[in-house]
């Protein structure tokens, strides 16, 4: 059974609110290009790690210390990139530019994908996403319409 226009509108509002409240979770649900790029970086880092092992072993067998150290550095860098890709971490350029923008009401702290006020006073949030959606739904039902 297809959704009515009202239901579609409510669903779109809920999606926008979810994206605004927790963009990291919303992108995870969408299955965006983020996952593909993280997987690609992890695979490339794995190949780099294997190359680093080969260079390290070549340096050890040939008794060329500099080559062994270079292989270790390549392995270390590749492991760091792979772990960052698997954890979903990005550099500072990928941070949400709106999160700390002064026009958004002051400084914010991103904790687990959620934006919270530093001061704590005057926060516009009154509970979780679902609590706010339930409050809206109840208000609309009480007023007799949408």
Automatic annotation (TrEMBL):
<feature type="transmembrane region" description="Helical">
    <location>
        <begin position="67"/>
        <end position="86"/>
    </location>
</feature>
<dbReference type="Pfam" id="PF11239">
    <property type="entry name" value="DUF3040"/>
</dbReference>
<keyword id="KW-0812">Transmembrane</keyword>
<keyword id="KW-1133">Transmembrane helix</keyword>
<keyword id="KW-0472">Membrane</keyword>
<feature type="transmembrane region" description="Helical">
    <location>
        <begin position="42"/>
        <end position="61"/>
    </location>
</feature>
<dbReference type="InterPro" id="IPR021401">
    <property type="entry name" value="DUF3040"/>
</dbReference>
<feature type="compositionally biased region" description="Basic and acidic residues">
    <location>
        <begin position="132"/>
        <end position="146"/>
    </location>
</feature>
<protein>
    <submittedName>
        <fullName>Spore wall synthesis complex protein</fullName>
    </submittedName>
</protein>
<feature type="region of interest" description="Disordered">
    <location>
        <begin position="91"/>
        <end position="146"/>
    </location>
</feature>
């Amino acid at each position: 059974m297809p959704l009515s226009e009202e239901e579609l509108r409510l669903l779109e509002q809920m999606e926008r609110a979810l994206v605004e409240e927790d963009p990291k979770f919303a992108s995870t649900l969408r299955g965006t290009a983020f996952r593909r790029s993280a997987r690609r970086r992890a695979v490339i880092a794995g190949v780099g790690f294997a190359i680093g092992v080969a260079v390290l072993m070549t340096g050890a067998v040939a008794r060329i210390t500099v080559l062994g150290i270079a292989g270790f550095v390549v392995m270390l860098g590749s492991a760091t990139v792979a772990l960052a890709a698997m954890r979903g971490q990005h550099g500072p350029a990928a941070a949400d530019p709106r999160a700390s923008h002064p026009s958004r009401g002051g400084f914010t702290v991103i904790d687990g994908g959620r934006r919270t006020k530093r001061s704590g006073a005057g926060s516009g949030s009154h509970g979780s996403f679902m609590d706010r959606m339930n409050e809206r739904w109840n208000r609309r039902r009480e007023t007799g319409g949408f």
